[in-house]
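ping. complex inputs:
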Amino acid sequence: MRRPAFPFPLTAALPLPIQLVWLIPVYGFSGVLLSLPWATGWFKRNGPRPAAYLNLLVTLLAFAHGSLVTLEIWERGAQHLSFNWFSAADLHLAIGFDLSLTNLAALELITLLSLLAQFFALGYLDKDWSLARFYALVGFFEGALSGLVLSSNLFISYFLLEMLTLSTYLLVGFWYAQPLVVTAARDAFLTKRVGDVLLLMGVVALSALAGSMEFTDLYSWAAHAQDASLGTARLSPLAGSLIGLGLIAGPMGKCAQFPMHLWLDEAMEGPNPASILRNSVVVTSGALVLLKLMPLLRLSPMATIALLVVGTISAIAGALVALAQVDLKRAFSYSTTSYLGLVFIAIALQQPAVALLLLLSHGLAKALLFMSVGSVIATTSCQDLTELGGLGNRMPATTVAFLVAGAGLVGLLPLGCYWCFGLGVQAIWQLHPLFAGVILLTNLLTALNLTRVFRSVFLGSAMPKTKRAPEVNWLMALPMVSLTVLVLVTPFLMATINPVPGIGAFSLPVGLCVAGSGLLGVGIGSQISLDRFWSRSILQPLRGLQDLLALDFYTEKIYRSTIVAFVAGLAQFTNAIDRQVVNGVVNGIGRLSLQSAENLKLSVSGQLQSYVLTVVIAIVVLLSSLTWIVAEVVR
Amino acid sequence: MTSSVGMAFPWLSLLLAIPFLGTFALLLWPGEPSPGRLRGITIAILAAQLVASLALLLVFDPQLSGMQLEEIHSWVPSIGLNYQLGVDGLSLPLVLINAALTLVAAVCTRDFSKRPRIYFSMLLLISGAVNGAFLAENLLLFFLFYELELIPLWLLISIWGGTERAYAATKFLIFTAVSGMLILGAFLGLALFTGTVDFSLTPISSDRLAMGSQIVLLSALLVGFGIKLPLVPFHTWLPDAHTQASTPVSVLLAGVLLKLGTYGILRFGMGLFPEAWAQLAPGLAIWAAISVVYGSLAAIAQRDMKRMVAYSSVGHMGYVLLAGAAATPVALLGAEFQMVSHGLISALLFLLVGTVYRKTGTRDLDVLRGLLNPERGLPFTGTLMILGVMASAGMPGMVGFIAEFLVFRGSLLAYPIATLLCMVGSGLTAVYFLLLVNRVFFGRLAITPASDNPVEDARLDIQLAPVAPRETLPALALALGVLALGLFPAFLGHWSEATTTAMAELPGLVASLPGGGLG
Amino acid sequence: MPVISADLTRQGGMPTAAELERRLLAGETLLAETSDHVLEVVGVLESYGEVLDAYSRNLIYQAEQQFLNPFPVFKFFDGDLSPARIWRHLNHDRINFEYAEYCMKSMLWHGTGGLDAYLDSQAFADCCGGIIQIKTRQDLLLALLNPLFRQFLPELIRTAATTHALGQFWRVMSDLFIDLAAAERDGRVATIAQVVDVLKQGLVAAAAQPITYAVTVGQQTFWVLPPEAGLTFLADVAVPYVEAVFLRGMPFLGTVSFNAQAQQISPDQGQFAYGALFADPLPSMGAGIPPSLLMQDMYRHLPAALHDWYLQRSRGEGDVRVKICASFQKAMFCVTNAAIAGTFAYPLGSSDPEAEAANQTYARAWASRLALARTDCLRAAS
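pong. complex structure:
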């Protein structure tokens, strides 16, 4: 009798923190359950803050537990745990945990940033009555993310990726009474769902073909699936390509890569603490899934090419569109798309170390950047760059945070991304100089963007909406300052993760190139005239370019006129067929029968002979046709 | 392999006796009991039925794949109609679903204005008939119970339905009657051509028949059960019946009655004609894909919430046909899961739509807005609705996902194109349900069509009646069931796995399946 | 039931600007005269008065005892750190002082009136300089930050000044509202006209009350808002408060998009229409609606008579906070009414044509602003 297995593996030799590692995602989900009484309004006379405190506690527990596990794994080496979930015939679905240092580092990043973002939310959302619901959703987010980075098989990765899609929908739709949020949440969910359905196709195919869904088993299967020696059981190139494309579609949606990038823009309608998490850890986890799928992509060279194309377009286009944004949050969400494009390029070019380091430094720096943005929004109730200015001499924590985050993102000063870009350029410039150029160009554009935003928000004279801008309260300032310190020590964190060959393993010319591109970006950014930047140019081509960038290459309009119109049109067509044709036939038959009944009624002449004649004719016809049918069958 | 534990205690007859005796008891109850009293009696009887169904779990042996707890008594041997009952992994979950959802339907009945006695007795009669259909081991007995539920349902729709109930009820009657005739024709044909007099399920087999006649009979069965499933183009009775029926009747229709079609197709279509089934399987897979995509696309264009959920039923039942066409063990287990999952989820959705209709008086998507408003709206109903639509869209963590995953996983290698199309259909489910949630629950509370002037919309003062906790309890119970089965699917798979594996290994089925595919 | 019943949706009729102007000039109340309205307004103002009492005490405590404290973890405790108090704080069984801070921030940000003008003056800057000198000697971090971020500490001092001024304002208003409730219980007040009259008398009586604020840093006392500045209750605090909280307000994250490309928020703060008189009561207690905190506080201090009145209507206890919000809006119209009536330049109904013209201009300006507000709550049918 197969029972669902209890979550206690048999290996008694492992220490308790590792044996209980399945608790780590459960902490996040338990945050949801703990918040329920306050979220449903059960305590009518009291407020929702206890839910926030409980969630903070539970996240702290997750961080502590993760740290203990990391320490154990550091000593023992990587471990693998598996719990049987569901088995049927040849299908075995298990919940697996792959405890490697990479995954655990990502886990620590997630829990730490979740902790800081939740603390930040205590200050940012302190006037929000639905605080309990927010924390429940963030707990859900965190649980799904922790499970995702630790997962050892494709099924659980897909499972949690979809749950992330759901929680993104609910978090972006947090302020559901706001009209733009309604469309934003819908678009976020549907875009990611498209990616997820394509991923599901790949997952189902792999499950059916390879049997097991553990990543290690899939790697060995993929290595031999296209061997000529397998004969007809060989995986056809077409199937391999389709599977490869399906597999990358999910991470593409999750990391907001072109063409599935619009949702991140719209998702900025959600609360800022959620944006902090979304731009740092959610995209990181999507990229981590892609990293785990990387060995499978050898099935399909087309998938690798697709990754390169998508990554390059996202990197450059994202950085360009970010330049044209007047909304503070969107100026940086496009930059997230851009950096994840670089990560995709690194993954496609078989540079997992560079990709991981970039994810780490980007995650930390972007989170800090969004915290400082949130602080600005909370103080000035304004997100519009044209209406902000002169905050620099009034908000020290915010300004310093912005500067440090910018330094962490741009390859100019020796903080996080400088070393990543250096390593990246060093690794690929000989074989793929084009992509090295893409990295440098992205660096330049990002530096430009950061400089222009810094100038318009923090420098200059005070505008009416920033005339009175005191520094934010301690609940927002404390996590911001902590994260500032963390971004400053990122190089040391990176060095511990990547001791060999070390983060400085690139030549001086490469380092100078990176620093030079950053310097050039800062230089251009500090010189361009800000007001002319905002106003729409009279010169036609320039105005066209401004509109193109500001409206994100008209992606939304393209979506609306192609996919949306296609599906809606098809739906209306189907509905019309249903009503007129199918239903029409049915009603027609009904009318016909009624009509013939009416006619028959009219034919009731009252004469017996006509009835008898009708009956006899009917019987003869029936019998002869029956006889004919039976004869046919018997023959 | 069968076990004859039947002589020990007639569990299955008990499952028939409780509702049927309950029907007579209600009809003959002395005096003029109040509607509330009648409802209480019905709930008590249905609770007893649920307990008896749960008790089945204790005596059922999940390791055995064949019929268990059989009861065989001859009834009318001259025409081959014998009283033969048996349960296996295919029918056991359906019996449980029947008991649970009929109880939910009875609990959710709130409109006592017209003839409550007949209403509740018809409810019990349908429950008993459905139980009989699921448990029957004799073809004619199955047909008898299949037809038995026809008139009570027609009565339920035509008396307690909406404004156009007469049209919808008559349409339902005609479609289902035709379906019954086709099924009977196929059964009679089978008996005639094989030359048997006994309609018992086990001995009958079609392998002596020529392929042509097998295909003819199977087609008749397919169309007959396809009307019930429903499959496009025989589905048009469903949206009308659901829209006009009252909420409890919709719950029964979607949750239980549609399963008669899927059960019939698998038990009698695939079970009796495995070789013909294997021949027709590619066509069936395509048909299933068309039905799924058609249902999903039509749902997107709907403006009435109930119609939208009805079309989603059309879409979701197609997965069962796809799984049947592929006929691998995993796919058939997925079919069983999908039947249970769809029963629970569509019942949940109909309950919630019914609550919205009761409180606001409309189901129009263009009129309702902002019902998640915490003080004046329906926040709890809205939350459960979001959970329900996500479950229907196949969100992991809920039973819909595991059902769809099993179906797709089992069918992909056999029919890749059809499976991929069905996955697209599954993705489209998210589209229309998200539209529903977005329009009806998000935004500022309003129950009039949106005007051109948003300032005017913001000045509307809406006052809806409150939703008492006991009104949401059934929906909450169903939601918890959906979540529980989604997180612990082994609990459901445990009972059905032996049977579905055995079904996939029917002689004649295995040999004819296309093997190559992707490798 | 296929038809949407008419009583499920209601839409109010709004009086025109001309009608509002007529009422103001004639000395009539803006709010229709019914006994239900009296019950609502007086009841809500009584609970509001109790809440404002707590707010004002806390704001004054914050300005005086938590001055320039970088980690004011216990700022809501009013100095009482007993375990029972801490538990109630953690369990959120307390007044939502965050809303008081929100009102203060709104006043500070809009920056209208005499108080704001003083905060930009040289005298204030000198006072700040003095405080900063002592603070930078005490704290190394501030000594580092001050030269780089010159306006950092002055901005925080401005915040403290506004906090204290608002605390003093609310002290007066709280006493006034509680007195009003007492008067209604004694029977001295039975109509809306009398309510408005009592409020007007109270405002006029406190009009010239001085607003001052001194703070002790190190061993010295600094006059942040000295008596010499001549800041008075009505002109320098009450009027900016009405402007910032009743009229302009701040856009709610829960109902308005801050997206710069959508341009839903006006760049001109003077055009804002998000204040208490303009806000939509129906989304109360939803996400992103700060006044929900106030509604919850008032709910906890609701007088029994008003609570019973609410229980008989619409969803009873289920939507009581939306009902409180609607009553609160009516009450705020009364307070505004009283403020307008008390600040006419000349007595109403005077025969002097110049006085009449001045009054008319004044009334017209107010009426045109109020005509866009939620005047549909002024009708007789509640």
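Residues 1-5 of chain A have pLDDT under 50 and may be disordered.
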